[in-house]
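Long-time lurker, first post.

We've been arguing in lab meeting about whether pyridoxal-5'-phosphate would sit comfortably in this protein at all. Half the group thinks yes, half thinks no, and nobody has a model to point at. So I'm putting the question to the forum: if I give you the sequence and the SMILES, can you give me back a predicted structure of the complex? Inputs are below. Any interpretation is welcome too.
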Amino acid sequence: MKTFGPTKLDATIIPKIARQWGTPVYLHDQAYIENSCEQLLNMPNAYGLHVRYAMKANSDRTVLRVVTNKGLDLDCSSLEEAARAFAAGIPYSRMMLTTQEVASGEERAELEEMIKAGLKYNVCSMTQFQLIADFAKKNNIDLSIRVHPGAAGGGESQTRDTGSEYSCFGVHLNDVPTVKALADQQGLRFTQVHVHIGSGGDPEKWRENIDRELGFVRTYFPDATTVSFGGGLKVARMAGEKQADIASLGTYAKQRIQEFKEATGRELQMEIEPGTFVVANSGHIITRIIDKKLTNEMNFLIVDGGMELLTRPLLYGSEHPIAIVRQDGTLLSSEYDGTPAAGLKSFGIVGRCCESGDSVRLDGDGNIVPVQIVEPEIGDYVVIGGTGAYSESMSPENYNSHRKPPAVMKTRSGELVLIRKKQVREQLVQNELDVKL
Ligand SMILES: Cc1ncc(COP(=O)(O)O)c(C=O)c1O
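Top reply:
Settle the argument with this. Predicted structure of the protein with pyridoxal-5'-phosphate, as tokens:
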């Protein structure tokens, strides 16, 4: 059984998609997304499970609809995300807001309307608490609180670790007694406690967090009925990466929550909010080779999409599997299944941005790392896998004035459907004003 990597690549559809919609182009897979939703919804649990999709991973409306139609609710990280999901037809009652924002003015009014319509507000700082307290009291609204656990190591890199001393997310565990005392004074209840330790870390850290979180729920939060363990469930994009075992993590959480019940008499519902796990391996980026440069130091393939579509390699040194597909749909070589063919050659694969770090593979120092592939021709395709999460939602799009590419969904029945058009040139400048200075 395949234990890592993106959904199997059908190389024959690559030229078809490229011809119809051009390159670069994002490709998603409905069946993959739905299957990962099912896997999460079937996670073992003691007294109920609520799964939210962290929509920052990919906030396209079609993706949101696929995920919410499967029964997942949403984790939003900004008012704009909540408004965007609402515009996609998803009610506020299916969203929780966990944000660094401190809404004021019109945004504050909007936030209050969203909360009245059922959005769950996850208090992430003392300031946020102080500003929401009167409104929550007046409207009889129970709150959730995000706690910074003061324990590092939950992320795949320092930049994705939200429990370390370098991270400011949530109310620090040291400050919880103060916030709790203030809430008690005002008669406010925290009915949910939330911790997100980071993204893509070792699943063992996820287990440790369950124990730690249940410990402080017991100490500080007698009103909590739901405990959220956040997202961060690791997916394996490349050979050798260890994917989070959902069944095993669920079994562990179930046992701990049952023990909590035995000790306290309280039945806690479990909540999780993965983003990566839902969509990462459903996505591919199809690029076309537009140039080749063979130098004494390195062989380069220049493709028509890079860091402006996928920034993770430059940002985190993250690795994505590469497949090389000929113009007739023949698969030349593939890292997707970890079985590279013989006759491989080293190529640095770079995009067309005027930026030396514009590559699909870099080391921690920002040096380009060659990929082992069968040598292709100009016009062939480089397909980048594991790009369903944090690529189109997170890219420095329009850098070098490249236009955001279209996105295509392969439906459950195998049909290829355009879900987002390519940006038109006017969109690059539409908000600029013709000011004469
Ligand atoms: C609060 C919160 N929840 C969930 C997630 C989703 O994490 P992942 O995509 O690793 O599952 C994130 C990601 O940064 C987050 O900040």
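For your lab meeting: The chain has a mean pLDDT of 95. The chain has twelve helices and 19 strands. Whichever side wins, do check it experimentally.
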